Amino acid sequence: MSLDASDIEKIAHLARLEIALESIARYAADLSNILDLVAQMDAVDTTGVEPMAHPLHMSQRLRPDRVSERNQRELFQAIAPLTEDGLYLVPKVID
Amino acid sequence: MQNKSIAQMAAELRLRTYSSVELTRHYLERIARLDPRLNSFISVASESALTAAERADRAIAAGDAGPLAGIPIAHKDIFCTAGIKTSCGSRMLDNFVAPYDATVVERLAAAGAVVLGKTNMDEFAMGSSNETSYYGPVHNPWDADRVPGGSSGGSAAAVAARLCAAATGTDTGGSIRQPAALCGITGIKPTYGRCSRWGMIAFASSLDQAGVLARSAADAACLLDEMAGFDPRDSTSADVAVPDYVDALDHDIAGLRIGLPKEYFGEGLDPRVAASVQDAIKEYERLGATVKEISLPNSPLSVPVYYVVAPAECSSNLARFDGVRYGHRCENPKDLEDLYKRSRAEGFGDEVQRRIMIGTYVLSAGYYDAYYLKAQKIRHLIADDFARAFEEVDVIMGPTAPTTAFPLGAKTDDPVAMYLNDIYTIATNLAGLPGMSIPVEPVDGLPVGLQIIGNSFQEARLLNVAHRFQHVTHWHQGAPSGFE
């Protein structure tokens, strides 16, 4: 499996990573090598094999739909880069 | 002082042979003097450690001390600690002080343990050499030019160098066992779900598990006794009773059936490492165990499967680091997308970005069946291999890593070569099983680890099997020169 520069740009965009132009070739080579390693899977016949969703085949536990946490907004926002009036600030999204 | 077992320290603290404040000062002094050679700590918490030590001394005096009262330990910097920075080895979290303690941290604190600081690690636990840390590599105490292994490399080096009595770690593909092997100490990765993941920064949620790095199986049992157990805050925590691991240490192992997977002794294994592991297995035969060859035919596929499953889950888990709520934020973002992209590109190192991109690719439209679904199916085949093996043996043994510690920088340019370090450890994570590494005879002065794999929730058996070996051998007592 070989990825080219446009594949890397697309993947980086999906992953929301700013990739420097000079790094693209290296990422393309590294990711292609990793996918070559992964391609060993192709030789295995998995017809009729169930995918393993949980290592111990346990199912997701549910809890009653009741409030169990107290509001700690001030505590959590104390470590935020930028807040105002209890809101997280980001660059303007809508003009 | 630093060579005593945890049980001995606990007993002497109770006899007031010395106080926890004295013991804590002793370790803090060692860290200040010796850690500049290793870089095993990211944060040293002298002040809060001494406060906790004073509290432990008062509890001991009052007669209501917990089992680990006054014992100085360290946490891998992946566990959230209120009041001490939790960086996860990343620039992304260089400014992050968690507003709460992880369950594992909380439980060890409730048992009275004193936290000396937070140990260095591969960034977001992605690495096998501790070289991806934003805070620089950790040096192996046995040879400063070599890696300590990873990702819990700081914990392993700190324990081997006697800079703490024991340390916590996490293991997603070998991150406790491999550094334990390379640093000559004892490490245990419990069954998936045995220790809570709550407050442990997520890498690959179906594989991540907390465990212990210590100087002996007995010391590891002391910590695991406190760490293990059900936690309603972790939705995959196992609601399974926890036996007393210390109580089980001395059980007789005569008649123990050991399986040796032929796939773990083939091409790629350093013959000197193989010889050392074989000698250890002969010791087990002298202790009354029987040995038979078994096969885990799908285990060679564990590395390819892992490099689909782990990056896929990582790309999803690390989507939370967006520069908005906590962690690194870029300067002067021009719009929201620029804020996300530059904060993440500046905050994450190369290996983390590689894995996020692989994960994003294998989960992207049109590729899911060929990669993630295929990997999850082969994962089932790998787990079935173990299930069949455990019908005829009690434990599986083999090498932990194919070689001894390699030189710093030797594999940093070749991600795939680095990944192959974990060839013997990854299958255990994929199957959710518990695994250990204990030191056996070194090769050219460098430690070698014997891996012991058990069936689900057989941690007591593993610790017992490891302890009986350590009872009749001395490899676990060796200290690196300059750190005795």
Question: How is this structure best summarized?
Answer:
The complex is a heterodimer of chains A (95) and B (484). In chain A, 32% of the residues lie in helices and 4% in strands.
Structure explained in plain terms:
The complex is a heterodimer of chains A (95) and B (484). Chain A has a two-stranded antiparallel ribbon. Chain A has a domain at 5-43: Histone, subunit A. Chain A has helices at 5-14, 24-38, 73-77, and strands at 83-84, 87-88. The two termini of chain A are 43 Å apart. Chain A has three helices and two strands. The longest helix of chain A is centred in the first third of the chain and has 15 residues, at 24-38. Chain A is mainly α and 95 residues long. In chain A, a hairpin with a 2-residue loop joins strand 1 (83-84) and strand 2 (87-88). With 484 residues, chain B is of the alpha/beta class. Chain B has a single domain, classed as Alpha-Beta Complex (Amidase signature (AS) enzymes), CATH 3.90.1300.10. Chain B is built from 15 helices and eleven strands. Chain B has helices at 6-14, 20-34, 46-62, 103-110, 153-160, 177-183, 217-227, 271-286, 302-317, 336-347, 350-363, 369-389, 415-419, 426-431, 459-472; strands at 41-44, 72-76, 114-119, 166-170, 186-189, 210-214, 257-261, 290-294, 395-399, 435-443, 446-454. In chain B, the strands form two sheets. An eight-stranded mixed sheet of chain B has the order 4-6-5-10-11-9-7-8, with helices on both faces. The longest helix of chain B is centred in the C-terminal third of the chain and has 21 residues, at 369-389. The chains are: A mainly alpha (95), B alpha/beta (484). At the A-B interface, helix 1 and helix 2 of A face helix 9, helix 10, helix 11, helix 12 and helix 13 of B.
